[in-house]
Amino acid sequence: MSKKVRVRFAPSPTGGLHLGGVRTVLFNYLFAKHNGGDFIVRIEDTDQSRFVEGAEQYIFDCLNWCGLAPDESPTHGGPFAPYRQSERKPIYKKYADELIAKGFAYYAFDTAVELEAKRKEINNFQYNHATRLQMKNSLTLNKDEVEKLLNTQTPYVIRINMPVDETITFNDMIRGEVSFHSSQSDDKVLLKADGMPTYHLAVVVDDYLMQITHAFRGEEWLPSAPVHILLWQYLFGLENMPQWAHLPLILKPDGNGKLSKRDGDRLGFPVFAMDWTDPKTNELTTGFKERGFLPEAFVNMLAMLGWNDGTDQEIFSLQELIEKFSMERVHKAGAKFDYEKAKWYNGEWIKKLPVSGYKLQVAGLLKANSIEADDKKLTQVIELIKDRCTLLTDFVVQSSFFFKSPETIDIAAIQPKWNDHKNLFFIELIRAYELMQFWNHEALEKEFKEIAAANEIKAGELMLPLRIMLVGGKFGPHVFNIAEVLGKEETIKRIQHTLQKLEAQ
Q: Which residues carry out catalysis?
């Protein structure tokens, strides 16, 4: 690769960022960084009717959370600004006019009413080689009529004049040689009546002007490829066209079709990177971040949806992904999304990262549940329970009892095997614990077992009651580790509280 690698992600600011979109970002980013290149974000907001307030900022918030910061964008600036297509509007008309002058495009003056009438007249109507000569355009009107309509500012669009019988071929980095017949494509609108370009014209012009070397996008864009190839050929020459790769779809868990937001709602998992609230409906869609995912795990999981490095390795840091990534290892077939596997990645990253990597998030989650956690104690607690947590949200249930007494005690789990003998054991244990000089889990366990042996009770029979006294239920890490973190005063207080409850039964 002689030219510096330049790739781009070009989203429309129309709503939440689907995990398929983030994976497109990731593959662009990894390819750029692996090859010492630049990753650009360009906002494709030419369809003003679909523009959603706050959606652009949301996209950048998602990328920041994932650690996939662009080198150039509307917020980062760069040598090819502006990076919003709406701010580049004056650029595109020149290229549309050039296409008309060369005979590769034409003016179409058909009104919305006329187009609707044609749709009623012809089933599955397409504005193409078979119908364009029946329509009101610069191919059917004489030069004077066209001039008159333009001079009187009659609204028009500019359409590409698709050739009738050509085979259009390109080499896809994932799929190899791909061919299309030109008659399968309609005469796409290139410039709308409001002077805004459509995606088809804007993407080609901007990729050329921004010196994009590689364009990676979802396979759903394959049907548009013939139009884009012809525009490259007509305007800039095919030798200047970026290398393309059409990425495989992320499929529903059963493999039947593309994963959608509706599937997530139906099956109870997120499909957006972060929470998204639709400003029109106020509907909240939960994201991976708020569900308790670490960005490292989210990125790792996405990389493995449609790519692997050829080994059995599954856990990769972003730096490792950059080092190992290549388009040759991206699969052609779609990748089934598996939420359980996604959670597995998260659990692995919770174990792998130092506590400092997510302590603040856990503290925030506890605070949201009215639990104030002392910093030193929180570090201790996270170390103790992190192997039991799959999502960051699990830390709330698994750790809340360390910071406040359990609201309920599962007395019913203790009662069936409770007796006076055991009651006396715990009274003796309290006295022994009150006198203990060194409060650590080894000393606490030793004392506990010695008193149990002296009272001729199996220590195993006493462990569950002690756990329930301290935690409220049958969960949590090793019981003496819990007591160590709780401290002497709190441990004794909780044992006494449960003894009183048992006595009152």
A: 261
Gap between the Cα atoms of 44 and 82, Å rounded = 12
Closest to 342 measured CA to CA, from 312, 313, 300, 370: 300
3-state secondary structure of 51: coil
How distant, in Å, are the alpha carbons of 79, 87, 293 from that of 82? 9, 6, 34
In the chain, which residues fall in CATH 1.10.10.350? 405-505
Predicted confidence pLDDT, tens digits, the chain (505 residues):
458 999 999 999 999 999 999 999 999 999 999 999 999 999 999 887 888 999 999 999 999 999 999 999 999 999 999 999 999 999 999 999 999 999 999 999 999 999 999 999 999 999 999 999 999 999 999 999 999 999 999 999 999 999 999 999 999 999 999 999 999 999 999 999 999 999 999 999 999 999 999 999 999 999 999 999 999 999 999 999 999 999 999 999 999 999 999 999 999 999 999 999 999 999 999 999 999 999 999 999 999 999 999 999 999 999 999 999 999 999 999 999 999 999 999 999 999 999 999 999 999 999 999 999 999 999 999 999 999 999 999 999 999 999 999 999 999 999 999 999 999 999 999 999 999 999 999 999 999 999 999 999 999 999 999 999 999 999 999 999 999 999 999 999 999 999 999 998 8
Element (H, E) at 499: helix 488-504
For 103, phi and psi rounded to 5 degrees?
85, 10
d(CA 250, CA 258): 6
Query: What's the CA gap between 335 and 498, in Å, rounded?
Result: 52
Give the separation between CA 301 and CA 309, rounded to whole angstroms.
14
Q: Where in the chain is the domain with CATH 3.90.800.10?
A: 88-206
> Order of strands, edge to edge, in the sheet holding 38-41?
38-41, 6-9, 214-218, 243-247, 167-172, 176-181
Cis upstream peptide for 416 (omega within 30°) = no
Q: Which residues, including other chains, have CB under 8 Å from residue 28's CB and lie 6 or more apart?
A: 7, 8, 9, 39, 216
**What topology does CATH give the domain 88-206?**
Glutamyl-tRNA Synthetase; domain 3 (3.90.800)
In sequence order, what are the residues at sequence separation of 6 or more whose Cβ sits closer than 8 angstroms to the Cβ of residue 432?
447, 451
Task: Note the Cα 494 to chain centre separation in Å.
Answer: 43
For domain 405-505, give the CATH number.
1.10.10.350
* Diameter over CA atoms, the chain: 112
Encoded amino acid at 238, one letter: L
The three-state (H, E, C) secondary structure of 395-435, written as one string: HHHHHHHHHCCCCCCCHHHHHHHCCHHHHHHHHHHHHHHHH
